[in-house]
Amino acid sequence: MHRTSQPDPVRLEIFKNLYQFIAEQMGIVLQNTATSVNIKERLDFSCAIFDSSGLLVANAPHIPVHLGSMSESVRSLINDKGDTLKPGNVYLSNNPYNGGTHLPDVTAITPVFLENSENNPCPMPNDQCPMPLFFVASRGHQADIGGITPGSMPPHSTTVEEEGILFDNFLLVEEGNFQETTVRQHLANHTYPARNPDQNIADFKAQIAANERGVQELCKMVLQYGIDTVQAYMTFVQANAEESVRRAIAVLKDGSFTYKMDDGAQIKVKVTIYPENRSATIDFSGTSWQLNSNFNAPKAVTQAAVLYVFRTLVDDNIPLNAGCLNPLEIIIPVGCMLNPTYPAAVVAGNVETSQTIVDALYGALGVMAASQGTMNNFTFGNEQYQYYETICGGSGAGINFNGIDGVHSHMTNSRLTDPEVLETRYPVLLESFSLRPDSGGKGKYSGGNGVVRRIRFLEPMTANILSGHRVIPPFGLNDGEAGKVGRNWIQRQNGIEENLDSTATVEMKTGDVFVIETPGGGGFGKCQ
User: Fold this and answer.
1) How far is Cα 314 from Cα 316, in angstroms, rounded to an integer?
2) Where are the beta strands (DSSP E) in 195-343?
3) Distance from the first to the final alpha carbon of the chain
4) Residue 454 burial class via C-beta count within 10 angstroms: exposed 0-12, middle 13-18, buried 19 and up
5) Alpha-carbon distance 23 to 4, whole Å?
6) Interval 305-318: pLDDT, tens
């Protein structure tokens, strides 16, 4: 069948939705087959499909920080193992220097060959396999992947090794055979081994199953429409996304913004718009150099934040994909905190710094005040239990809208575990969870309010908080007021209160309550 050079508008809409539907199907399988609370309840996972060169075609609307960076992981696999990829192989990767975000986010990548659908052995002579036609991938946040604290989100790590186990294009399934022994050895053979390998294995298997659904659906699609049409429309869907972003860029103005973080580091961004070819340069020169803390964001995370912002400026219903990046030139100096070099610690870069990048970009473009700007990462555990959650707060107000109370904003899109599930699976009591009145910044349009979450511990455990905007308030724009800063503190069983910094590790005793007050969003415009 000959390749068409112009997409048929009706078919374009059908394929756009089909690709997205496949990623959503993968997500449903992952949620249904996973065992960890993180993936099953909090939905801290993402699924996507990629073209033969590893470029993102479509994803389900999962976690923005995963989606914009996963393509780097797939491309790293192609560069690293390109000539040895075979039907029935699945690879694991979480390397922050190869497209990963932070170590708990582990990606399973399955190359798709048409032979996959028949489960035939590779039909080529001399073990020469054809190149994969597509790739599918699912990224899930593991409850624990080792490291110096349970839950693998250590507030005070200074190297990536202290954050857990690194998988770099690791062969998880070889021609249909799950490599359990090798995986278990890899999880155990580390200075800070994984605490619950059985759970890791169960979640890896769920990711394999999710990918398998993606493979089946893509093969069905090829059977129905033919490979040429399916591949041509992948390109058309990317081109359509590119055109939508170019249209959004055409109405923007140049701007720059500098945003300080609680630790004194700063993110500096300058956006230059070129109306004649509807493109933009996003330059992060002047941003702080690599930090000794773990607030360094891998380059893939920085790109994901830029991709997210420009996608949100588009009104059309397009899948977030590689086409969105084509009109953008992103400059990130090597060795700065947004493009660190190994072995810099990165666990907070993914969850905290990514949020600051987004707010700095909205500030530079003048479209929206800062949201809470943190994920308020709370982990607790011991050798038996490990738990992680991100906590909602206020979102920023914009040109013609108020911020929203108590939402997960921007780079996080997970939900909180139901109290019943939390209290059944872990020895804690959710004492209260409420909005935090008057924490949003006032303005013509007001910022959203943060929340207050109180968790009482029923047995001794280590608790960690990794958060931001406990010192620097989320900014208002156009004379709008800033949102209120958050606060972390502990109420001991004996009534003593202990204030904590933005990042802290604490030993909780039976009866102690950990209290997290999250920031509000900034206001926009002067109060009338």
Assistant:
1) 6
2) 255-260, 266-274, 279-283, 328-331
3) 63
4) middle
5) 25
6) 998 898 888 888 77
